[in-house]
Write a structure and sequence with these properties.
The complex is a heterodimer. Helix content of chain A is 66%, strand content 0%. By secondary structure, chain A is an all-alpha fold. Chain B is an all-alpha fold. Chain B has one domain. Helix content of chain B is 67%, strand content 0%. In chain B, helix 2 crosses helix 3. The longest helix of chain B has 22 residues. Chain B starts with 18 loop residues before the first helix and ends with a helix. The mean pLDDT of chain B is 85. The chains are: A mainly alpha, B mainly alpha. At the A-B interface, helix 2, helix 3, helix 5, helix 6 and helix 8 of A face helix 1, helix 3 and helix 4 of B.
């Protein structure tokens, strides 16, 4: 991403388009995986697009762009939810790991990059189970799983994005994985566990 | 030495007193001095071995989901908006 950011900041139009698309797609994935409200995702994508476009003219450190983008995506997704009329009772909180009453849904129903029929069926089944499993987690845990396990951010990057300590990220990730494992494995052997 | 097991009829339960170490081991966060002991415990404990397998499955499922592209309709709209904002300047 750094090379694309550098080229975009220098005025390369192809790189700029690539970066603006990436920012929106990241926003869509975050919105769907963490907040789970498709009706908010488009608003959030638009907002992320505008913020990214404006930010590109101010970039001094290209390596700082990725953390900036993840923080921005997190913020626009949460703001989208808060702005929506009639939604206050369902505001997604990423600060309260114990809260699970957000009534949000999680969708990871996206096409496979390897469309062989058996692979498609198998991946679709796994994604469906994962989406169900993720939807049982509080949004604060989903955000950590999304950034660490789905986006591949480091513990430090995840902590910086969410404004948490690294220990807190590790604790939430462990607890989330235990819950996901329980849901995916269909076992209740660990029910009630967690820190 | 095995840790304290929780018992279920369906699957062997992992050891409560080893859980934090096992989780840290999976993430590569375990201090080097404890890695060998935890790895040996997992190798000899069906409950913890099962936990490790299932956690790795969950992590792999998340990574696989993260690798997927967004739907083509979403991509097209993102591209259209990107081109529009670049055109407008």
């Amino acid at each position: 991403m750094i090379d694309v950011v550098r080229r975009a900041a220098a005025g390369d139009e192809d790189a700029l388009e690539r970066l603006l698309i990436d920012a929106q797609e990241l926003t869509w994935r975050f919105s769907m995986a963490v907040c789970g409200h498709p009706e908010d995702a488009e608003d959030a994508m638009q907002e992320a697009l505008v913020r990214t476009y404006k930010h590109l003219g101010q970039i001094r450190d290209v390596e700082a762009f990725r953390p900036w983008l993840y923080r921005t995506v997190r913020n626009v997704c949460l703001m989208s939810r808060r702005k929506r009329a009639g939604a206050p009772a369902q505001v997604v909180s990423l600060d309260d790991p114990g809260r699970d009453g957000s009534a949000s849904r999680t969708a990871i129903d996206v096409p496979s990059p390897h469309p062989g029929p058996e692979a498609v069926t198998s991946q679709r089944r796994l994604r469906s189970r994962l989406a169900r499993a993720l939807s049982t987690l509080p949004p604060a845990f989903r955000a950590v799983v999304f950034l660490r396990d789905m986006e591949g951010l480091s513990t430090r990057e995840t902590a910086q994005t969410l404004g948490l300590s690294e220990d807190n990220v590790k604790a939430r990730l462990s607890r989330a994985r235990l819950a996901l494992r329980r849901e995916l494995a269909g076992t209740d052997g660990m029910r009630g566990r967690g820190r | 030495m095995m840790g304290t097991h929780r018992r279920t009829r369906t699957t062997p339960a992992p050891c409560d007193d080893r859980l934090d170490d096992v989780l840290a081991w999976i993430d590569g966060d375990l201090p080097a001095a404890r890695v060998r002991a935890v790895a040996a415990h997992v190798a000899g404990c069906p409950g913890c071995a099962s936990l490790v397998d299932e956690l790795r499955l969950a992590i792999a499922a998340c990574r696989q989901a993260g690798d997927c592209r967004v739907p083509s309709s979403i991509h097209r709209r993102a591209r259209t908006r990107a081109r529009a904002i670049i055109r407008r300047g």
